[in-house]
Amino acid sequence: MSAPSVPSEASASKDPQGRPTVSEREARQVAEDAREQGWRKPSFAKEMFLGRFRLDLIHPHPVPAPDDVRRGEAFLAKVRAFCDEKLDGALIEREARIPDEVIAGLKELGVLGMKIDVKYGGLGLTQVYYNKALSLIGSANPAVGALLSAHQSIGVPQPLKMFGTQEQKDTFLPRLARTDISAFLLTEPDVGSDPARLATSAVPDGDEYVLDGVKLWTTNGVVADLLVVMARVPKADGRKGGITAFVVEADSPGITVEHRNAFMGLRGLENGVTRFHQVRVPAANRIGEEGAGLRIALTTLNTGRLSLPAMCVGAGKWCLKIAREWSGAREQWGRPVARHEAVGEKISFIAATTFALEAVVDLSSQMADEDRNDIRIEAALAKLYGSEMGWRMADELVQIRGGRGFETAESLAARGERAVPAEQMLRDMRINRIFEGSTEIMHLLIAREAVDAHLAVAGDIIDPDKSLADKARAGAQAGRFYARWLPKLVAGTGQLPGSYAEFHPSGHADLSVHLRYVERTSRKLARSTFYAMSRWQGRMETKQGFLGRIVDIGAEIFAMSAACVRAEMLRAGGDHGREAYQLADVFCRQARIRVEELFTRLWSNTDEIDRKVVDGVMSGTYTWLEEGIVDPSGDGPWIADATPGPSGRENVHRRIG
């Protein structure tokens, strides 16, 4: 997890396809430079990873302003009516395309401008109600939710809102609020979560830049009107260069959408491969400074990531509804299957997890709206936890439905049964563990933020490039920090039986016991992290299994905290308080079992021997184990050629009227 001092730009050498060749250290430094440095506002999750349970940062639960609620609820009512009357999810699944009239209807509702300020023609909704709308629309069809999320959460509107000039906002935001669909283009055929090797170039030419390169998995790219494109500006005398963000008109000469990709799920997703050949972009369309592209992308994702778990909340609610209805109607051995413990525990898991996930998303969203706290870790945890738990809930629903869960909705309807698309939900949900940062990348990203305070005081000690004098100064600084910090990890309010008494009102489940557990666990988590850094020092960044478990523990106790705070908010407001306390209680009990298992696996695991097996697999030691099969894969390279140049393919880009 160290941040060594190496040049921030990747080396100038390139491979035969024109991609920059970079060392591991250079790649890490590019990512490190893109991080938002410093913490200007408090962060509940950051404090939690440091062993400080700051309940005061989230309790009492923040609530939206009455006018925001009024406008938000009125809009949700319109969206619900549209989804009921105009959005045919089965048709989208069958034809693998969102009908133009559906998108036109959404535009008419103003859905493209949910987060755009009213002065630019948008609706100016809060993050809370934007997420509720995505959850609602995504439950009708996840591909439509993905289109809207890609447009507003990571597409052109959000980076312009945060980093654009006034001229750019005046020019583009009115279009984006009502008519124009946007897309975000970062990934390349050989560049995913490691942007240091990004090959798409933007060469300055007068008051323009000339773009060349190929972008992969361009969500909305097939139908987009405006693009955010990340491209590398070469260094030059007096020019910083680096990965830079541009707003690009999708119908610019030289842009070709060469292919519309097809996937396991999200069949209506307009996702493609886009080639740029000598595409001229005005310098006025550059967002921010040269070299600021990755920082802009990561900062945009601080809140943009919340849209994905919001749609997982919608999926959880649907899974719960279907599980309840089906498990009451289906009988086995003389009683409904819900009354059999093996099925009942799955239903309990779906109900409790849906409650907790909604608590995580709403809490994080409201904190984003109030802008009092830094929520970069909270949003990342919400994405990680939502995608993993959403997938598990969908999988459990398929299991509850049995053979009918594996059967398509169309087939069920054809033989006279209710068309329940459980298998489609499972396929559609699977991408969430990869979208906007895979689970493995999210583990590393969150872990880096979680140990930021340690690296700030002790990073030079483990940096091999630092001098002995630098290491000595860092050692003295670290000594002072840990002398103050470590004693605070020994004892806390979690050991006092009467702590958090307001979370044990008469006649309700006792949530105070769970908050005391969270406080104790937060300190234990911090002690474990400190011990690991002391043990492994510079090798800590290679211990990805350990870091992933640390993050997963943090995600569980964040969700426990959010669930308890939400339950108390609902009780105080007289809104299903007793039931909310019951759901929070069972969720916390389930989460505590998972946390204890994760703590055990911190130090009792197969990480070392796994690495030895991997060495054997990659060296060919176990090829005999692969015998006796037929590989149905086709021929062709593992990674498509992305050499810059003109396109030889038909342009499949289509404009939606």
Automatic annotation (TrEMBL):
<feature type="compositionally biased region" description="Basic and acidic residues">
    <location>
        <begin position="22"/>
        <end position="38"/>
    </location>
</feature>
<keyword id="KW-0560">Oxidoreductase</keyword>
<dbReference type="InterPro" id="IPR009075">
    <property type="entry name" value="AcylCo_DH/oxidase_C"/>
</dbReference>
<feature type="region of interest" description="Disordered">
    <location>
        <begin position="1"/>
        <end position="38"/>
    </location>
</feature>
<dbReference type="InterPro" id="IPR050741">
    <property type="entry name" value="Acyl-CoA_dehydrogenase"/>
</dbReference>
<dbReference type="InterPro" id="IPR006091">
    <property type="entry name" value="Acyl-CoA_Oxase/DH_mid-dom"/>
</dbReference>
<feature type="domain" description="Acyl-CoA oxidase/dehydrogenase middle">
    <location>
        <begin position="183"/>
        <end position="279"/>
    </location>
</feature>
<dbReference type="GO" id="GO:0050660">
    <property type="term" value="F:flavin adenine dinucleotide binding"/>
</dbReference>
<dbReference type="InterPro" id="IPR036250">
    <property type="entry name" value="AcylCo_DH-like_C"/>
</dbReference>
<comment type="similarity">
    <text>Belongs to the acyl-CoA dehydrogenase family.</text>
</comment>
<feature type="domain" description="Acyl-CoA dehydrogenase/oxidase N-terminal">
    <location>
        <begin position="73"/>
        <end position="178"/>
    </location>
</feature>
<dbReference type="InterPro" id="IPR013786">
    <property type="entry name" value="AcylCoA_DH/ox_N"/>
</dbReference>
<dbReference type="Pfam" id="PF02770">
    <property type="entry name" value="Acyl-CoA_dh_M"/>
</dbReference>
<dbReference type="GO" id="GO:0033539">
    <property type="term" value="P:fatty acid beta-oxidation using acyl-CoA dehydrogenase"/>
</dbReference>
<feature type="region of interest" description="Disordered">
    <location>
        <begin position="635"/>
        <end position="657"/>
    </location>
</feature>
<dbReference type="InterPro" id="IPR046373">
    <property type="entry name" value="Acyl-CoA_Oxase/DH_mid-dom_sf"/>
</dbReference>
<dbReference type="Pfam" id="PF00441">
    <property type="entry name" value="Acyl-CoA_dh_1"/>
</dbReference>
<keyword id="KW-0285">Flavoprotein</keyword>
<dbReference type="InterPro" id="IPR037069">
    <property type="entry name" value="AcylCoA_DH/ox_N_sf"/>
</dbReference>
<dbReference type="GO" id="GO:0003995">
    <property type="term" value="F:acyl-CoA dehydrogenase activity"/>
</dbReference>
<feature type="compositionally biased region" description="Low complexity">
    <location>
        <begin position="1"/>
        <end position="13"/>
    </location>
</feature>
<dbReference type="InterPro" id="IPR009100">
    <property type="entry name" value="AcylCoA_DH/oxidase_NM_dom_sf"/>
</dbReference>
<dbReference type="GO" id="GO:0005737">
    <property type="term" value="C:cytoplasm"/>
</dbReference>
<dbReference type="Pfam" id="PF02771">
    <property type="entry name" value="Acyl-CoA_dh_N"/>
</dbReference>
<feature type="domain" description="Acyl-CoA dehydrogenase/oxidase C-terminal">
    <location>
        <begin position="291"/>
        <end position="449"/>
    </location>
</feature>
<keyword id="KW-0274">FAD</keyword>
<protein>
    <submittedName>
        <fullName>Acyl-CoA dehydrogenase</fullName>
    </submittedName>
</protein>
